[in-house]
Design a protein that fits this description.
The complex is a heterohexamer, with three copies of chain A and three copies of chain D.
Chain A: E1 2-8, H1 13-22, E2 28-36, E3 43-46, E4 49-52, E5 56-65, H2 67-81, E6 90-95, E7 98-101
Antiparallel strand pairs in A: 1-5, 1-6, 2-5, 3-4
Helix pairs in contact in A: 1-2
Chain D: H1 2-23, H2 29-56, E1 82-84, E2 91-93, H3 94-112, H4 122-145, H5 150-155, H6 165-168, H7 177-195, H8 211-231, H9 238-266, H10 271-285, H11 294-319, H12 327-345, E3 356-357, H13 358-361, E4 371-372, H14 377-408, H15 416-421, H16 423-428
Antiparallel strand pairs in D: 1-2, 3-4
Helix pairs in contact in D: 1-2, 1-3, 1-8, 2-3, 2-4, 3-4, 3-7, 4-7, 4-14, 7-12, 7-14, 8-9, 8-10, 9-10, 9-11, 10-11, 10-12, 11-12, 12-14
Classes of the chains: A alpha+beta, D mainly alpha.
Bound molecules: adenosine-5'-diphosphate (3 copies).
One adenosine-5'-diphosphate sits between chains C (7, 35-39, 56, 58, 86-90) and B (27-29, 62-64, 101, 103, 112).
Chain lengths: 112, 112, 112, 435, 435, 435
Amino acid sequence: MKLIKAIVKPFKLDDVREALVAAGVEGLTVSEVKGYGRQKGQTEIYRGAEYQVNFLPKVMLEAVVDDAAAAKAVEAIKAAAATGKIGDGKIFVLNVEDAVRIRTGETGAAAL
Amino acid sequence: MKLIKAIVKPFKLDDVREALVAAGVEGLTVSEVKGYGRQKGQTEIYRGAEYQVNFLPKVMLEAVVDDAAAAKAVEAIKAAAATGKIGDGKIFVLNVEDAVRIRTGETGAAAL
Amino acid sequence: MKLIKAIVKPFKLDDVREALVAAGVEGLTVSEVKGYGRQKGQTEIYRGAEYQVNFLPKVMLEAVVDDAAAAKAVEAIKAAAATGKIGDGKIFVLNVEDAVRIRTGETGAAAL
Amino acid sequence: MLLSTLLVLLMILPGLALFYGGLVRQKNMLSMLMQVSTVTVIGMMAWLLWGYSLAFTDGGGLDTFVGGFGRLFFKDVTTSSNVATFSTGVVIPELAFAAFQMTFAAITAALVLGGVAERMKFGAVVVFALLWPLLSYYPMAHMVWWWPGPDAIAAAPTDPIKSGLIWGFGALDFAGGTVVHINAGIAALVGALILGARKGYRTEPMPPHSLTLTFVGAGLLWVGWFGFNAGSNLEANSYAALAMMNTFIATAAAGFSWTVTEWVTRKKASMLGMASGLVAGLVAITPAAGFAGPVGSLFLGLIVSPICVIFCSTIKNALKYDDSLDAFGIHGVGGIVGALATGLLVNPAWGGAGVVDYTTCAADGDISTCDTATYVMSTQVLAQFKAVLVACVWSAVASAIVFFIIKYTLGLRASADAEEEGLDIVEHGERAYHS
Amino acid sequence: MLLSTLLVLLMILPGLALFYGGLVRQKNMLSMLMQVSTVTVIGMMAWLLWGYSLAFTDGGGLDTFVGGFGRLFFKDVTTSSNVATFSTGVVIPELAFAAFQMTFAAITAALVLGGVAERMKFGAVVVFALLWPLLSYYPMAHMVWWWPGPDAIAAAPTDPIKSGLIWGFGALDFAGGTVVHINAGIAALVGALILGARKGYRTEPMPPHSLTLTFVGAGLLWVGWFGFNAGSNLEANSYAALAMMNTFIATAAAGFSWTVTEWVTRKKASMLGMASGLVAGLVAITPAAGFAGPVGSLFLGLIVSPICVIFCSTIKNALKYDDSLDAFGIHGVGGIVGALATGLLVNPAWGGAGVVDYTTCAADGDISTCDTATYVMSTQVLAQFKAVLVACVWSAVASAIVFFIIKYTLGLRASADAEEEGLDIVEHGERAYHS
Amino acid sequence: MLLSTLLVLLMILPGLALFYGGLVRQKNMLSMLMQVSTVTVIGMMAWLLWGYSLAFTDGGGLDTFVGGFGRLFFKDVTTSSNVATFSTGVVIPELAFAAFQMTFAAITAALVLGGVAERMKFGAVVVFALLWPLLSYYPMAHMVWWWPGPDAIAAAPTDPIKSGLIWGFGALDFAGGTVVHINAGIAALVGALILGARKGYRTEPMPPHSLTLTFVGAGLLWVGWFGFNAGSNLEANSYAALAMMNTFIATAAAGFSWTVTEWVTRKKASMLGMASGLVAGLVAITPAAGFAGPVGSLFLGLIVSPICVIFCSTIKNALKYDDSLDAFGIHGVGGIVGALATGLLVNPAWGGAGVVDYTTCAADGDISTCDTATYVMSTQVLAQFKAVLVACVWSAVASAIVFFIIKYTLGLRASADAEEEGLDIVEHGERAYHS
Ligand SMILES: Nc1ncnc2c1ncn2[C@@H]1O[C@H](COP(=O)(O)OP(=O)(O)O)[C@@H](O)[C@H]1O
Ligand SMILES: Nc1ncnc2c1ncn2[C@@H]1O[C@H](COP(=O)(O)OP(=O)(O)O)[C@@H](O)[C@H]1O
Ligand SMILES: Nc1ncnc2c1ncn2[C@@H]1O[C@H](COP(=O)(O)OP(=O)(O)O)[C@@H](O)[C@H]1O
């Protein structure tokens, strides 16, 4: 199994979720994160205090999928999240050794 | 070492923490996340705008444990977090290559 | 590629980011998390209700870096985040199998 | 009077700003607060410079529709000038009257923003704050409220009585149902139509970012509204107490009936429904506050909410316009319901205050000494209907002109990127919340 | 008077709603706001329909305990009806009086919700809003405040003076310490006991989700309380100024002494302690506001907080009842302390206003022309004690009846699932915050 | 008067507390709220005990600078004592006057906290709350406001007229520009310098944790400020209406001009700029509210904000002091601009109210019967300048003494750890928000 971690722009969250579901992913977990990267933040100014905002709001999706389904899921995210503009985000793939569904105790791919 | 990622219902957080501690886990990190899965969200309606809430509030616990302790930790979470109802959550196990305790610089299992 | 997950004290975030950038890391993602560990929380008291705060506010940085750069990045974090006091945090290193830059579709190290 | 003025300020900042602000998404929070404030401060300055004059002076040949230039820059408005109330010989300081009316002008323009929230460009809002009152608010206020006062009439009893158009219909509007709510509600609808819907409208969720703030706003609106309704009596007497009681009862009833409507149709009563109902009740009772009896107000409150619910959900969804915060659905619809109902509830047989025979008081213009006229339901309802119609048409046309002018010069909408990233960071360079 | 009425509304919405709302967990925020609003709007409508009549009319045979049906549906309450103040011949519009009292009825029932927060079913709250005032608030208000007024007494000086039971004790209660605070506090305790504790009470942390909101609520309560305390004078005079000064001093002192208590016992002074102390001070000064001197108020403020602290921590923890937001610990306990202390602080030797010899004014009933009676501490304290006792017993019994009726019909508690998921989403279908 | 007192309370809690609280980082939110509340409650108790006496009684030999002990513990302040207004024979209850002034004392000390936020130890704040008014506020209030009143003067017309130092200059200060704003602003600057900058100042971002709260605070400040400005008239008349109008216009203009300044210099108009401008306008109009005309107020508002912007950004950044929430940059600078401008705007040729020839009214001291003096710009501006200078110097010296005393006894700053972890958890054992 693979853990697919995708960091995308917040307003793309719904599109990406739909794309993943369409690609057969049945569960995922989302966190609100702040991202630092090539996309430079806006300058925020509060009264006199001006500073470069290094971190931009992003959302991180984490979905564990079957090995077989990983490539398709990555594709789905890529297609749904791309705007072609800097800051579109990243997808990382990690190996997962085991998965458990708490409710039933099922493990492995059956747990996804 | 293994990274155990558990996504559970928010009100189970304290129970799970206690179970993990009882199982010998000494540290963990918790994020507030939103989960999408088999458990369907409630419908939220704001004036006219009705929509299916796809994401439900969950908490994600991440604990890195010794290889030997992993199974026990997974069991502990499973026992503490289960209500038998849909949406109880998932546990994922990933391999961790190294760990460092920032304060002391210790690495490996000693750092946990 | 490696995923470096560092859990540090919130007020160290900016120092750590600068250290990582100086070490050549070009992107990272940050979440606000709550940590449980050796550092015992303060006692919070709300009217009569007193309780031990088990979780302390921390930030978690996640950066995926080239295998070669991993050690340097870990060092950089360690140096920047250490105060020598309990609760300084942890660094975990995981293996990453693939990375994709959504904007361009680049994969692997080129995507970082 | 001074207190009432304060209360109306409380309604705008922070009241309305929070009510609206809580309903937008987090990324547009500051833009909402900023737009409300900007419209308010510009409205206040413009009132001093030209607004007061255009609303509350004799407009000469155009007097039926708009005032004149006699009080530009508050010329001759001093600590010794006074304006008439409804009783002969009773006056209030003109500065107090001008301040009270200034807050009405400010809040009306701010209300419109609810229809165009989360997508209108800040620059466009600035221009709107200048233009819209010129074409819509000042004329409407003049048409509904302008008359020279009982003393002036007593001084020249044989002259024909001058007044604005709608005042002349004999339509009843205690505290601005037409001028404020119908006017703002229609403008919001027109604005929403001309701007078009927000990106993602009806496909992505756009939940309110803080219903707590919306609730606080609704509570402050209620408290402040007494400035509207009791202050509009100009004199403090037992009619002010009646207006207050009605404002309590109708509001409570409307809050209740909105939640009951939800409970019946959706099995759940929502807090937003309660808050929306409270505001709908406030809107509906505005024209009727001094005319209806408490039991009549109870009925008005119970009736207005279900009607607003239909507009805010069924009709809006069917017609697919994006009245983002339901400024039309609550203020426009509630205002129309209230204005029409006023014609019924004033019926003395139903506990209302009855109408006044203006012919018997024309000699001195003092309303408090006029005879009570025979209330004829059809006459009164017709007068109300005419007033509503004129207000709707005038407001629609004036607002359309204003929005189109802006659209084809400066542009109305923020860029697609700004809409996605949020207006706060793109237009104002700030974010509402940090940790 | 009108202003005071507004201020009491400000205390409820948004004041009390935020004070309580900030203290619950995020998942129950909207339910808290919704419950407070619902109890308020139902309370207002019921006041019009039957509450006012049951509290403030002659109850015939039951007059000692409750009013009658003479003013159901505000019958005969018009712009020309008046009610007496404490001075012969001075009257205020009955609509203003009824509106003022309406807000008291509303806030009292809302205060009770603090004891049963985070677990009471919404439907049960609706029924509570209807039943509890019938059994507890209207009778209590009648017992404490009902008398026909000086003019009525002057008109028939030989008749025995009618009045409610507690008024007859000669107990002093300036602005509703018994009727509002003791009554609500006891009801909250009874409710907390009958409902049982929240799931996870004393095992999981249940920290307040936003102390900022609680602070805002406390601030608005303070501001609004002057409506309570200065408005209860009915006439604006230098006694209103005294009531205001006392309300400042006692409140400041109680805020201070709560934090000092914490500092001494826990080495840390908390913001929640400050906010709680402010409210405790407001509660305690309520019955004494027009009777104590400023220095007496200072002492009262300093004393009340440590006593409340004991109830909110030591005693509550020892007895393990879940008075979720300390409605009993602050309103009940603070109210009792204030009521008893009023008997002492009125002592002219201690700077108090002294008591009045009712026998000397029975002829015309005008309190302002009565002679000052000799203050006898034991007599006065006894009268206060009797009043407190009757209030506690009546409220406890009436509340128990109401809560048990609901429990055995509709059920009181939300389902265990709802309690875990949060009442907001399960009962109201909304969440307070989105990003 | 009573209402104005309430409004000033609303300005402090929750107004100022939220304005400041929104600007700090989340980890210091409760400490900000707590510091404001603590300074307020201590200030109120101290006012009763000694403050009122030291500010508003005859100080004997030191009368030029400070009051005496005649009213310690509110001795002889009863429901039957009165104080003079500006008209002979018109009095108000002393308790009302004392309460009104009490709120001024409280808010002034609270304003200072904006300069030292996020690092001052709670214990140090407590001591500051006691000491600073003794050395700075009470003397300053005495110097500016103390005079025995027209009746006293009429009773002994041949005696030399006693008064505080600054009152004697003939400087105009309608509602406390010197006593409140310059005084607090300078103290904040001195405090900021003596404490030193926050850890990480100018290297890490310290964005406001909730601009929404700051906005709410600004709105409540505006609403409450009418208590300041209209209430300072002591009598309600058309001058109160003028003060109100000016308070609207100058504030709106200053909000507008701050955002325009930002737009011009940074291409973006920020909500925080709007809120800051509103407050700057309120500060600037304070001394001028009853003296300027509406058009003059418009100019004052337009001018004050750009000057404040320069101090809050360019100068503060250049000099590197950490006036954390710009208490000096807005209150100090705005106060000075307003005080000087008052000397110009009172010019009757510019629509101002003109100055009064005190020699013609010395006989009876009744200002309302004095002749209008010839306005000489240079004389008046000089008088204003002297007042500003004395206020600045006195406040700087007094504040330095207070801050140094605390520094070398108890210590001023929270520990470095506490500053990093946040004062909320370390000093108060709580966190503002939980989920
Ligand atoms: N090496 C990395 N490790 C973890 N997160 C990263 C990394 N690089 C980028 N990110 C995340 O992806 C987001 C987008 O990256 P950025 O460099 O701004 O744009 P792009 O992906 O278009 O090159 C960042 O805001 C950050 O959250
Ligand atoms: N494949 C997955 N990858 C990541 N998170 C998942 C995945 N499947 C489920 N989750 C998380 O677990 C939660 C519970 O899953 P759900 O399918 O609703 O119930 P159950 O675990 O009982 O089958 C989800 O809300 C989501 O946060
Ligand atoms: N085994 C672990 N797995 C995941 N996170 C951990 C683990 N141990 C510690 N942490 C995180 O690191 C933080 C600091 O750890 P702690 O034990 O308090 O101090 P130290 O790192 O100085 O020993 C914790 O608050 C927690 O967030």
